[in-house]
Write a structure and sequence with these properties.
Length: 162
């Protein structure tokens, strides 16, 4: 399993040492061979995990210029910018009139159709559309202020006024 005689010998020795420690601690071992086999398998798995971690740690020894860059969305500046954008949109949504905000949240975040929102709120489908249009325009204005490309809060499956 390990494809190295020395590593295999180490695993066998460590397995026997652990099983003997269990027996010497006074615990009854009904199936010593099974325990020995399971212990060896777990030691091999642990070695693979440690080797995997060491591979990733090797990047730390590289000069900064040669280290792989983190994905752009995980860079601290990008994370901070997205947090600020989310806060700006949340503030815009929070500033909407209560009924407008409710219709928008039900439609865009809870996924209800205009008809379902109308039934839930006890208003006409046209009124729902007006509320959602107002909210989308407010979000679009925020998007423009932030200099973002046209994307949010438009859904891929629905147009901006769906």
């Amino acid at each position: 399993m390990v494809r190295d005689r020395d590593v295999a010998a180490d695993v066998v020795q460590e397995s026997y040492a652990r099983v003997l420690a269990v027996r010497n601690a006074g615990q009854d071992i009904p199936e010593p061979r099974a325990l020995l086999h399971q212990t060896a398998r777990r030691l091999i798995i642990d070695r693979h995990r440690r080797a995997s971690v060491r591979q990733h740690d090797d990047f730390d020894s590289l000069p900064e210029s040669e280290q792989p860059a983190a994905p752009a969305h995980l860079e601290p500046e990008s994370v901070y910018a997205h947090e600020q954008q989310a806060l700006a949109f949340a503030a815009v949504i929070e500033a909407l009139p209560p009924r407008c905000r409710e219709a928008f949240v039900l439609n865009r975040f809870d996924g209800l159709s205009h008809q379902e929102v109308a039934e839930h709120m006890g208003i006409s489908k046209n009124m729902v559309a007006q509320h959602i249009i107002r909210a989308v325009l407010a979000c679009k204005a925020c998007e423009d202020r932030l200099g973002l490309p046209d994307s949010w809060p438009h859904s891929a499956k629905r147009g901006p006024l769906a």
